[in-house]
Every structure is written in structure tokens, then in C-alpha cells.
Amino acid sequence: MSRAVLLALLAAAAPPLVSAQPCTPGDAVQVEGLGSPADDLLRVGELLGAVEPAPSLLRRAGVRAAALCAEGPGLPWALAPRAPSGGGIEAFTLPVRLETTLNTGYPYGGNDGLLWSGKGVSTELSLGAGIRWGPVTAVLAPELAWQQNDVFTSRTSGLAGDAAWANAFYPGAIDLPRRFGAGPFTRTGPGQSFVRVDLGGFAAGLSTENLWSGPGVRHSIALSSTAPGFPHLFAGTGRPVNTWIGRVEAVSLWGRLDRTRYVAGERSPALFTALVLGWEPRFAPGLSLGLTRVFLQPWHGRSFGDYFPYVQSFFKSDLPEGDSAFPGDNPDDNQLASVSARWAFPSTGFEAYVEWAREDHASTFRGFLKEPEYSSAVLFGLQKVQQVGGRVVRVLAEGTFLQETRAPFNWTAPVYYLHGNGLDYTNQGQLLGAWIGPGSDAQTVAVDVFGARGRVGAFGERIRRNVKWYIDNEAALDARVDLEFVGGVRGVAFLRDVELGWEASVGYRYYPDFLERKEPNWRLALQLAFPGAGARRGSGPTAPR
């Protein structure tokens, strides 16, 4: 089934346009993490009409506030209240979190930041504390991760030394090792730490938080929480700003990406610059439109203009860089641009969303119209929530396709997240975008039930890896497609103020790395969170107002 047909079916499934329910901002709650139980509950709360909706197309993993709707229904469980500022210096601690995963067959897992879920046991500990003083918020939230990194059968790079662990398919084009060396290893990092100043709806600061761009739940093409957060400066709106055309957001980012020693060739750090724009049109309540434009450049030797590359034209023919054969094709940068849309209907508990991206921009506008699918990727999904008695049922479906199946006009299409020259789309050996990897695709379905004591559900996932590499080499592979099916159950339970998250799944991977093998994998994941001072969860569901 083609992408066009799938998108048409998605559009047909959407309910008719209705007016969004009003939301008067009420109590403030405190949330942290991306994909955490609290973060997931907020997304469901928007579809219930319990949480103030917002464009929010650039989300951060650090501690933050969200507003409940004063006239909205209650959430299935209460979130930690955000204490009002007393005017002086306010100190607080963050929950102590311990996450442990076990994979019995091969690496599996994503959106876990510093943690790398290889074969064997992997565990991460995080904690933190912060202060608020007027418009200034500062948080220190370090993380420590240990990975058993047990051996598993895989294709090798065929190189010597540390490069032996490099990506087997693109060893010199991307810092994405198949393993981080030959045995257990430990990593530390500043985690979701930041210093932030909020003044009059605008914000600026220094952060190492993970960032998430776009409306996706399981994946994001442009920015996800798969890699460790990288140090970056940011400046822009601190919250959606009301204008005559609707609510808008704009954030500019400047950061540094680091490389591991497990890559062939260039290992220099890269300069990360990005502009993220979000818009909720006044004439279409519930609709959020977004644009993310990311540039990677060499860290050293930059001029002032190199820190604002996202203001340049989208078409190479308008740029002076490059040579006579490829005018405007600057070899010293790598860019990715994505546009996204999310339309939420709280009156029916439904949302549909899509993200479309290009790894390589077009030479001319005519060239773009001729083959808009060139180097493109697409993500689309939907969620439906329904009150059933005292519980809420959520159905989720999402598909991510990082590579067209055939290069148009027999051109060689670039592979997603690859570039070489140290400009690949990774930080510390993990991807900034979708964790499934270069030129891959995945489809996910899930059903979850939310109640006062937590959440329980089941999910299924299908993943094809390295699709582009298979297409280029299919004559020699004899139809050995690297294909994985995963099914499992998951949940969250509250034991007084302690949060216990769990997941148990089984996967079966056909021809991993296109080798003549079939491999099972049992996965178990546990997360424990002990509340920090002043951040205790309520003892029951949020009361209706």
C-alpha cells in the first residue's frame, strides 16, 4: 500500500470539523520526561478536554509546568501540583528514577537517552534538584548508566581497532556503532539539567535536556529522545504567544554533538543549529502546524553567519556555495527539514498527526515539484480516547517510513541520517531522530487503559531495518529482508507515592543484518520513581471541576 493511499485513509478516518471546547487555564501541574507516564497522561488529557491544548511542537524532557482546564473533566490520576512561587528562592528536588532493561537476544529499545539497551542488562539512575528565583529556574539532574553489552551475532564492519565496532553498513558515514566495545561500559552525563530565564512569554538559557520535535508518539523524524541530550543554547518563546493569527511558538537552538571512537574516519564534534516554528491557527482550533529546520556543520572554523543557516533559501540554486557541477551544494553542512501537523478534537477524543521530512533539499522549486518524494520520509498516526466507566481507553496507531522504496528517475537517494565528514545525525553514538535507524521503517499499534491506580495495555510493532541498503543489494541477498515483529504488555502502577513502570515483550527477528539467521528476543523493562520533595503525586484521580 502506498503512502498516498495510507494518508488518504487516515484523512478519511478523521471526524468532521467541530469547534474546540473552551479551556480556561486552571491548576498548574509539574511534569518531567518525554514519554514518561505523566507526559503520556498530558497527551491523553488534551483529547479528554482536561488539559490546555498547545502547539508544543518542540518539547523538552526537563521539569516543566502544564495547565489543567478549570472547567474540564478529571484526569485518570492526579499529577504532582506545581507549587506557586512565594517570591523568594524556592528549592525543590526531583524524583529519583531507576530504569533497568533486559534483552536476551539482541539490542532493542529507543527513546531512552543516555541508556543504551543492548543485549543483557542495562540500567540507569537519575536524580536532581533545582531552584526557582523569580524568572530564573536552574536544575541539576545528572544521570549514570551501566550496560552489560553482551555479545550477539551481527554483521561486522571488517575494520581494525575501535572501528571494528562501527556500523557494519556505513562505517565511515555515521557514528552508530553496533556495540560500544567488547564488554560492559558506564556512561555519565548531566541529564535533564538546565538554566532558564522566562520573561514576558520569552525564554532563553543553557540546557542539556533531550528535545522532541513534531507530533509523533513512538518516533520523531527530526528530534527524539533516543540519544543523550547535548549541551545547547536556546532562545525563543517560553510558551505559545497569542497573536491575531493564532498562537505561535519559535525557538532557535545552538548545540554541540560529540562522537565516539567507534567510527571510521572523522571524529570531530559538530555544530548543531535549528529553528523550530509552531502555529495554532485561530480559525482552526485544535490544529497545530510545525516546521523544524536543522543544520549540522563542522565545529571549528565557523563565521558569524554560520550560526544562523536556517534563514537561507530552501533551494540550492539560490546559494553561492558549492562548485560548478553542483552550485549551492555546500559539502560543509548537512541539513534536515520537516513539516508537521496535528489536529486534535477534544469533543470526540480523537487526533490525527503527520510529519513529512527531507534529508536533502532541492536545487530549484521546479525540481521540488518534479520529485517532492526525493530523500523524503513520513510519519503519521492517530489516537482515540474514550471514557469507559471510571477509566479511559486509548487506541494508538503510528507508522514511520524513513526511506522511499525506489529512488526516482534512477537517482541515488541519500540515506536518512548519513553524511560523513563528522556531520551524521547522531550524538555519542546514538541517533537524534527515529531510533529504528537509517533507511528503516516501523509500524506500531497499542491499546492502553488508564485508571486511578495507573495504566495497563498491550502493543505490537513491526520493524524493517536498513531498507535502502537492502534495495541497493537485493540481487545478492536472496530476499533476506531484516524484519522484526514485537508484541508485549506494559503498565504503570502507583504504590503510595512510588511509581512503578514495567514492560514485557517478545520479539522475533528474521535475517538480522541480512544474515542467514532467525533470532528471538525476550525483553523486560522496569522503572521505579521515588518522589522528590514538593513533587508528590495526588492520592487519587484529579477531581472534576
Q: Which structural class do you get from the secondary structure elements?
A: mainly beta
Report the biggest beta sheet as strand number plus sense, adding barrel if it closes: 18 strands, antiparallel, barrel
Overall CATH class: Mainly Beta
What is the mean predicted local confidence, pLDDT?
A: 86
> Which fold does the CATH topology refer to?
Porin
Quaternary form:
single chain
Could you name the ranges where pLDDT drops below 50 across 5 or more consecutive residues? 4-20, 322-327, 534-545
Shape: globular
Give the second-level CATH assignment, the architecture.
Answer: Beta Barrel
Radius of gyration, in Å, reads: 23 Å
Summarize the helices and strands and which ones pair or pack.
Blueprint (H helix, E strand, L loop, with lengths): L2 H11 L11 E7 L5 H12 L9 E3 L3 E6 L19 E15 L16 E14 L2 E5 L2 E5 L37 E5 L4 E6 L2 E6 L3 E3 L18 E6 L3 E3 L2 E12 L12 E12 L5 E12 L35 E12 L4 E9 L6 H6 L5 E13 L2 E11 L24 E2 L2 E2 L9 E11 L2 E11 L2 H11 L5 E13 L2 E13 L7 E13 L15
Antiparallel strand pairs: 1-3, 2-11, 4-5, 4-27, 5-6, 5-7, 6-9, 7-8, 9-10, 10-12, 12-14, 13-14, 14-15, 15-16, 16-17, 17-18, 18-19, 19-20, 20-23, 21-22, 23-24, 24-25, 25-26, 26-27
Walk me through this protein's architecture:
The chain is built from four helices and 27 strands. The chain has helices spanning 3-13, 37-48, 365-370, 467-477, and strands spanning 25-31, 58-60, 64-69, 89-103, 120-133, 136-140, 143-147, 185-189, 194-199, 202-207, 211-213, 232-237, 241-243, 246-257, 270-281, 287-298, 334-345, 350-358, 376-388, 391-401, 426-427, 430-431, 441-451, 454-464, 483-495, 498-510, 518-530. The strands form four sheets. The chain has an 18-stranded antiparallel beta barrel. A two-stranded antiparallel sheet has the order 1-3. The model is unreliable at 4-20, 322-327 and 534-545 (pLDDT under 50). By secondary structure, it is mostly beta strands.
